[in-house]
């Protein structure tokens, strides 16, 4: 085993070319976000996890049935556009929104070592997902934010090696997490532009 960020695919390692974002590598990195939320060990985050997993499945299903036309996220969107129903396009839109929430929350946490996770995730939610949610869903997320673990405990889990070997240093964790976030930000900005320009929806 290894410290958490070394067990999942980093967004920094997702290929982005002129053709677009590598679909399979992106989905693999997105699955790492699901594992990150599970690391919080907070039952209140179950709806978040279920939402992420459901949208990953929609995109992966499209890839599995149209792999030749779905090598990149951009090609997948173009290929599905001509169809009456576009579950992967909608699923990817919601997945990107969920990843934007994750990015914003962890970016806030990284920017200020004094900010507790509950505050960081609340700010992340207010800046991203909140505008798309109804009263009931907002209540579910508010509960999840309040139930966040303490910052110190979460960062220790990110750094820890489950096998009992020595954990990575805080300095190394900072480097890895910042690279992960920078890779995610690059993809989010690119895909936001794609959705806006091609009128697929709002990310």
Please write out the topology:
Elements: E1 16-17, E2 20-21, H1 23-39, H2 46-65, H3 73-80, H4 87-111, H5 117-127, H6 135-146, H7 151-159, H8 170-197
Antiparallel strand pairs: 1-2
Helix pairs in contact: 1-2, 2-4, 4-5, 4-8, 5-6
Structure description:
With 203 residues, this protein is mainly alpha-helical. It has helices at residues 23-39, 46-65, 73-80, 87-111, 117-127, 135-146, 151-159, 170-197; strands spanning 16-17, 20-21. A hairpin with a 2-residue loop joins strand 1 and strand 2. The longest helix is centred in the C-terminal third of the chain and has 28 residues, at 170-197.
Write down how many β-strands occur, each being a DSSP E stretch of 2 or more residues. Answer: 2
Low-confidence stretches: none
Q: Compute the gyration radius: what is it?
A: 17 Å
Helix content: 55-70%
Average pLDDT works out at: 91
Condensed summary:
The protein is mostly helical and 203 residues long. Helices cover 64% and strands 2% of the residues.
List keywords for this structure.
single chain; 203 residues; two-stranded antiparallel sheet
